[in-house]
Amino acid sequence: MLRRFPTKNRRSRGNAMVEGSLALMLFAFSFLGVVDVGQVMVLHQGLAERARAGARWAVVNPYDSDAIKNVVIYGTPTPGNSTKAMFYLTTNVVNTQVLETGTPEARVVVSILGYPFNFFSPLIAGRRMAKPIVVSMPVEQPY
C-alpha cells in the first residue's frame, strides 16, 4: 500500500515568510527600545556624575563659576587646548550658584539644564531634552 503525504494547501504557502517578518520587526523594535533606555540611563548617570564632580570641587575651593563649569565640562578647572568636553557639554547648559552666602548653611548648587539627546527608535525618534540634574552640597569654608 502506497502512503501519500498530505500536500500543503496553496493558500498557506507564504505564512512562514509573513510570520517571520512580523517576528523580526517586533524583535528590531524591542532591541531599539532597549538601546534607547540604555542610552538614557548611561547619559543621565554620566551627567549626574559630572555635576557631582563640579559640586565636590566647588565646596573645597574658593567659588569661581567658570572653574566649576570647567570641572563639570572638562574634568579640570583649567582646560588645555587638547581637552575635549565630556558628553559634548557646553557652558550654556551648566549653571552654578551659592545659596545663603556667609552663613553656616551655605550651599553650592550645580545644575545641568536643557541637555539635548537623540532617540534611535523610529516610533519616538527625534531630539529631546534631558531632565534637569541639580546637585547641592554644603560648603566647607565660608564664602
Q: How many helices?
A: 2
| Average pLDDT metric | 87
Strand order of the largest sheet: 1-2-5
Structural class from helices and strands? alpha+beta
Total beta strand runs = 5
Secondary structure: helix percent: 25-40%
Q: Tell me the fraction of residues in β-strands, as a range.
A: 15-25%
SSE series: HHEEEEE
The shape is: rod-shaped
Radius of gyration: 27 Å
Low-confidence blocks of residues = none
Number of domains: 1
First-to-last CA distance: 102 Å
- Main β sheet profile: 3 strands, antiparallel
Provide structural commentary.
Helices cover 39% and strands 18% of the residues. It has 143 residues and is of the alpha+beta class. It has one domain. It has a three-stranded antiparallel β-sheet, with helices on one face. A two-stranded antiparallel sheet has the order 3-4. Strand 1 and strand 2 form a beta hairpin. Helix 1 (15-60) runs antiparallel to helix 2. It is rod-shaped and about 100 Å long. The chain starts with 14 loop residues before the first helix and ends in a 5-residue tail after the last strand. The mean pLDDT is 87.
List its salient traits.
alpha+beta; two-stranded antiparallel ribbon; 2 helices; 5 strands; rod-shaped
Can you summarize this structure?
This protein is α+β, with helices and mostly antiparallel strands.
Chain-wise SSE layout:
Layout: H1 15-60, H2 65-74, E1 94-99, E2 107-112, E3 116-119, E4 126-129, E5 133-138
Antiparallel strand pairs: 1-2, 2-5, 3-4
Helix pairs in contact: 1-2
